[in-house]
């Protein structure tokens, strides 16, 4: 029994998230390690673009409405943390996909 997850809820949520991503990748035709790595690179680029938009938006709001600085900075930090978490989890799922689905397939 794991004391951090005594009922296995986090493990079940993690397995469901991976299964959903695996199904989407298979439906999209991603069947090689190179294609999965390209998906990983695209996701990283998208998260960096999102982060840049959040930072520019926060800076603009700080200039226009300095009284709302605590709210603006809190929301910007929350959005950046959400994006970083999504990137980390997605990367972990993609590495698992490469190991389980792409590298196990026999080459024809």
Short description:
With about 110 residues, the protein is an all-alpha fold. It has one domain. The chain has three helices and no strands.
Shape: flat
Number of strands: 0
The structural domain count equals 1
Structural class: mainly alpha
Helix content: over 70%
How would you characterize the largest beta sheet? none
Q: Pick out the low-confidence regions.
A: none
Q: What is the rounded distance between the termini?
A: 42 Å
How much of the polypeptide forms β-strand, as a percent range?
under 5%
Query: What is the arithmetic mean of pLDDT?
Result: 92
SSE series: HHH
What is the CA-atom radius of gyration, in angstroms?
Answer: 19 Å
The helix tally amounts to 3
Describe the structure.
With 108 residues, this protein is mostly helical. It has one domain. Helix content is 79%, strand content 0%. The protein contains 3 helices and no strands. The chain has helices at 9-27, 33-64, 69-102. α1 crosses α3 (69-102) and α2 (33-64) packs antiparallel against α3. The radius of gyration is 19 Å and the shape is flat.
Which properties best describe this structure?
108 residues; 0% strand; single chain; flat; 79% helix; 3 helices; mainly alpha
Reconstruct the topology from this structure.
Elements: H1 9-27, H2 33-64, H3 69-102
Helix pairs in contact: 1-3, 2-3
